[in-house]
Each structure stands twice: as C-alpha cells, then as structure tokens.
Design brief:
10 helices, about 35% helix, 6-stranded parallel β-sheet, single chain, globular, Rossmann fold, alpha/beta
Length: about 210
C-alpha cells in the first residue's frame, strides 16, 4: 500500500506504484483527505480502506509512504496492528516532527488556510509523531539532503530536504536508514530511491554503497 504526503494525492505516488508493479508487487495507491482531517480521523479512514482490500490472511502487507503518510502508518499500526504486517519504507517522514511545520504555524498562512494535520506535526513533545513511540515493524527510512524551499532553509538547522531534517526523519526501532541526494518534494520520483525501496521490501536492508541494484 502506498500513502502520499500532506497536500498531495495518489498521483504523486503513481510512478513509485508503477515501478513496484513492474517488480512483482501488487499495489494499492490510496488517496486520502490529508488537508481536511486530523491524523486520528485519517487513521480511521485508512483502517476502513485496509479492511476492504488488504488484511486477508496469507497476504503480506507492505507499505511505502511519503511524509505525513509515514506518521499515518505509525498511528494506524499503534491502533490496529495488522496480523499480516510486512515491511515498510518511509520517504522523508517527519518522525520527530517537522521544523517547517513549526515555522508555518507561526505565520499568517496557518490562520488563512487551516490544516488540522499540520498542527499535529510539530517538533514539540506532545505532537503526534513524538507521542507514537518506537516502531514495532520492519522499517527502512530514506530521506533527502537537498533543500530548495526558502522557508525550510531558514527554519531548519543542519542537513534537510527542505521540509524535514535528516535528524527528524529517524525513529527508534527502524532497521535501516539512508540519505539520498534529493528533495522532499521529489524523493518518491527518484529512480535510485525506487530501487532502494524494492531492495528493502525484498531483503530488509538498503544497498548502502549505492552500487547498481538489480
């Protein structure tokens, strides 16, 4: 199952879904109301979606997520741990919150365009990502280190992808972590990232030395 990020749609994950299909995976590329509902309501909607397609016994359920999709996955597994849970790869997840979300919440944009999930994605100790705790499933995380977002360049210290810092993408319990030369916006469309995703779903690890991957 593929889960897109905040303010995006399933179209943003379509190239990744196509690549996974080409490499033998059956995919469900799910769209959800990322800007309209808080994370708890989005989690309930995901539960309904999974019950209809993907929780059958004997079928291994893997996930590939982008940004908010990773937090949605963590929230879902905490509430409804699937018996057929397989591996997951999160792309640029704000696992410790997003510094850019902190910055946006302090601007006029937060009042003009209210986004419930954005309010829950900060770096404060009581944000949703920081209340979820360690992951309990086999997880690989890939994040980028190329930032073109002007506000991100100001708001985020250290290496970052324009929205999430390399430090904030990490989470306790993950099995593998990789930094790729790409940005938050386009990480899910990067061909080398797609290869790493397939490799982790098959083996539970990334190819750290970035040698050619079959």
């Amino acid at each position: 199952m593929l889960l897109h990020g905040l303010g995006r749609s399933e179209r943003s994950m379509a190239p990744m879904a196509e690549y996974l299909e080409e490499h033998g995976f059956r995919t469900e590329n799910v769209g959800y109301a990322s800007t309209e509902q808080p994370i708890r309501e989005l989690t309930e909607s995901l539960h309904d979606e999974l019950q209809g397609c993907c929780l059958a016994a004997g079928r291994r359920l893997n996930f590939v997520t982008h940004s908010l999709g990773g937090i949605l996955l963590r929230a879902y597994v905490a509430l409804y741990p699937p018996e057929n849970m397989g591996r997951a790869v999160m792309l640029s997840p704000p696992n410790k919150g997003s510094e850019l979300a902190d910055a946006v919440r302090e601007t006029w944009l937060a009042d003009v365009i209210p986004v419930p999930a954005l309010d829950e994605l900060g770096t404060n100790p009581d944000s949703v990502p920081n209340l979820l705790g360690p992951v309990s499933f086999e997880l690989g995380v890939i994040t980028g280190d190329e930032s073109w977002h002007p506000l991100g360049a100001i708001a985020i210290e250290g290496e970052n992808d324009g929205v999430v810092s390399v430090e904030s993408a990490q989470v306790e319990g993950m099995k593998a972590f990789l930094v790729a030369p790409t940005s938050h916006t386009f990480i899910m469309r990067d061909p080398e990232v797609a290869k790493q995703v397939v490799h982790f779903l098959r083996t539970g690890r990334f190819v750290e030395n970035r040698q050619p991957i079959d």
